[in-house]
Specification:
Length: about 425
């Protein structure tokens, strides 16, 4: 594993490697309240050529940055699926990535539909070094509806099916049920799946009556590389497929949202108390059903406007925590060419702190869109420069530290700058 010299551990120092970096808006003056950056493992050497390409990006310009390295302590399961060469890749309904501001990297986890695998590995991507780093090597592969052919690494402990290393033995798609709590420095994952848990417990010699039957919320701590299951008491929400989990600082926790026949509600989770509260947004009933986003939505928190923006198909919704209210602000149409298609298996959206807009990458059409919450309007962008990669297993995120939308096609990395800093 490469080690970064001490003078390169601070991101602002890294930017000095690229003479045009500050001019391009990649860095900003340090605030008086900035705390010294904690050491992040693994330490990774930045690539000057990558930083120079990023520094040279002009507004509305894109560039291919090269091929990413893949590092980690790869076990037999990882090597069986060639993860030490390919990195994680996009995984069907698992394409959301979560920015960790304390690490200046983006986190990823979650399972495929079943082909070629269902794994509970956890990764992070570091843009300056152009590196995929595996933080948690996968336990044994799981089946679609069971624990797989080999359950020797699974135990039934405290009402939860866990691996002997402490990871989730049942592993789900993330849909949009993944978020990062910067206070706790934890990745949160609503890990609900079709596995027949009662049968699995019985096969392991346990009593199915002892199963915890609440929402399967898990935390992963990247600094420690450890998993933790939550087991909140009632009342708690229904952990449906395709819901949205989003950290909302105004509410002091993460919200779990769904609007279909399985569950209609927006709930807040208290990390410290491990307790759920039904916010009763819009007073419930028809107002909530009509105004809030339906499942398979994508969304982001806007810290300036203090709202959550969600896109579900061609409809745009805002959630105002202060008013405790959802509002459908835009009813789009597939033929209007004025709204992108928001779907948790086909597109991603993130907040861009430079412009204050939302930036959406639509994989089916290979397009990038910008959303202005004040004008309640979407704009289809036409990036100049290198075209976006077109592979079928792509991931994408927004890197606020280096002011770029990043699309990752296996190990091929493409970056786009929307506005200058």
């Amino acid at each position: 594993m490469s080690r970064t010299p001490p003078h390169l551990t601070d991101r602002r120092s890294v930017l000095k490697l690229a003479p045009l970096a500050l001019a391009a808006g990649l860095g900003r003056p340090a605030a008086a309240t900035d705390a010294p950056a904690a050491k992040v493992e693994p330490t990774l050497d930045p690539k000057p050529a990558v930083l120079e390409k990023l520094a040279a990006l002009k507004p509305n310009q894109a560039a291919l940055l090269g091929k990413a390295d893949v590092v980690g302590e790869f076990n037999d399961t990882a090597k069986k699926y060639d993860l030490h060469r390919t990195g994680p890749k996009g995984r069907d309904f698992t394409i959301k990535m979560c920015w960790a501001p304390d690490r200046k990297r983006v986190l990823f986890c979650g399972a495929n539909h079943g082909v070629p695998h269902r794994l509970n590995d956890v990764w992070e991507f570091d843009l300056p070094s152009l590196t995929w780093a595996m933080l948690y090597a996968p336990d044994l592969p799981r089946g679609y509806g069971d624990l797989g052919k080999d359950t020797s690494d699974v135990e039934f402990k405290g009402g939860v099916l866990v691996t002997r290393r402490g990871g989730p033995a049942v592993i789900a798609h993330t849909w949009w049920g993944l978020t990062y709590d910067p206070r706790k420095k934890a990745l949160l994952f609503m890990n609900t799946w079709v596995t027949d848990r009662k049968k699995a417990v019985k096969d392991l010699g346990g009593d199915p009556a002892d199963l915890y039957d609440g929402p399967p919320l898990w935390a992963f701590f990247p600094a420690d590389k450890t998993w933790k299951p939550f087991k909140a008491p009632k009342p708690y929400p229904v952990a449906i497929f395709g819901g949205m989990l989003e950290f909302v600082p105004e509410l002091g926790g993460s919200v779990w949202h769904a609007n279909n026949w399985q569950m209609r509600g927006t709930w807040r989770h208290d990390f410290d108390k491990d307790a759920w509260t039904d916010l009763k947004a819009n007073g419930g009933g028809k107002p909530f059903e009509q105004e809030s986003a339906e499942p398979e939505q994508i969304g982001y928190h806007d810290p300036k406007r203090r709202i959550v923006v969600a896109q579900r198909h061609h409809h745009t919704h805002h959630f105002d925590p202060k008013k405790n209210e959802w509002k459908k602000v835009l009813a789009g149409d597939k033929d209007d060419e004025k709204s992108p298609y928001g779907h948790d298996a086909r597109s991603v959206v993130y907040h861009d702190p430079v412009s204050g807009h939302g930036l959406l990458v639509q994989f089916q059409t290979n397009t990038v869109w910008a959303y202005d919450p004040d004008k309640v309007a979407w704009t289809k962008l036409a990036p100049e420069g290198d075209p976006m990669p077109t592979g079928g297993k792509r991931l994408a995120y927004l890197d606020p530290a280096l002011n770029a939308v990043v699309v990752i096609d296996g190990v091929t990395v493409w970056a786009y700058r929307y506005k200058a800093g």
